[in-house]
Amino acid sequence: MQDPTLQDLADFIAASPTPFHATATLRARLLAAGFTALDERSDWQLEAGGRYLVTRNDSSLIAFQLGAEGALSKRGLRLIGAHTDSPCLRVKPQPEKDQQGLWQLGVEIYGGALLAPWFDRDLSLAGRVTFRNADGALDSRLIDFQRPVAVVPNLAIHLNRGVNDGLAINPQTDMPPILAHSLDGGRDLRALLASQLASEHADCEGAQVLDYELSFYDTQRPAQLGLDGDFFSAARLDNLLSCHAGLSALLDSDGEQPCLLVCTDHEEIGSSSCCGADGPFLEDVLRRLISDDAERIQVIQRSLLVSADNAHAVHPNFAMKHDENHGPQLNAGPVIKINNNQRYATNSETAAFFRDLCARTDVPVQAFVVRSDMGCGSTIGPITASRLGVRTVDIGAPTFAMHSIRELAGSRDPGYLISVLTAFCNSAQLI
Q1: N or C: fewer beta carbons within 10 Å in the chain?
Q2: C-alpha distances in angstroms, 179 versus 90, 104, 123, 196, 219?
Q3: Domains of the chain
Q4: What percent of the chain has pLDDT over 90?
Q5: Where does the secretion signal sit in this chain (predicted)?
Q6: What is the DSSP letter of 374?
């Protein structure tokens, strides 16, 4: 990959197979750049000009820089929001299945996944494991098998002649991946996880695994493709592309303006959790930044949120699925997402601000409105706007195959998004 931005995005995605790993990757990069980690259970000593981060549930992160003395009260916050989770196959609590001499794991579908692309892929397994260590204390660590350990094979067409006429996939019976031959009546997943813990973490020898949150993922690395390298293909582009762009913008900014990056879990299932956008995480952090209620309202009203989540590019084989005047194209810049029923939080003022920002940054910009006879998806923008009262614009990089195991973006759009978000972080004036 010749483009350093795409290579960095590819490395970020490859290191982030689950929301836990995405948060750990974000945290590690921020710490390496000089940010200070905070603990929600401790008192915070914040200083003007300081740069800080805090995580919740190991799967959501907020990072912020305060700018010069008094800048927060006078200029408000430049907020960038994204989410760390993607649709996938999650392992059930008692998943072991021994069928036809093969060992499988039962899975639950997380989010609105396109299931057909999961068949015949080389899958690995990653997530968070909670255990009792050798001293009897409870602890949690992340694991990642990295290598292919499972597959969901298709049924041969000879046994399913009508498959190309339409296939109804049963998530309970059709999706359990195969991991191995059964040995003497089966294997023990918790014993397997204990072994993996010990191999990845030297201090976890002898751990007794109590529970876990594990996801299967595609082991194929991201790739730039096309005759002229016009496209970028990867798993979890929705929404790690936006997490990476927000992180890059924050790190590339001049540090003069108060900025905050919030990357939360559980967007794909509604955001209603302690660490989701519909939970109190962001509000809790803002209360600690600005303890006075009246002053906090004033700061929020001087602030602006750019909610970054991928947008639907117009597909050449399915152009009729778009409004004829609102078909965003790959490599044509970020998309402003608009819905008058408030599935997106964009209004005329925030859209105008973002259009002007793109113009001043020499970044092309597009607009998306769903067809009037189709339902509209949503994202963290309306949720955050309604909880905080902050002005919001919903935007995103155009993509194909959203919610597939492998999605497709334009190879120039990640750079466009980083450029305009960096300009946003450096903006002295908001609307």
Answers
A1: C
A2: 15, 6, 9, 15, 15
A3: 4-86+235-425 (3.40.630.10), 88-218 (2.30.250.10)
A4: 94
A5: none
A6: S
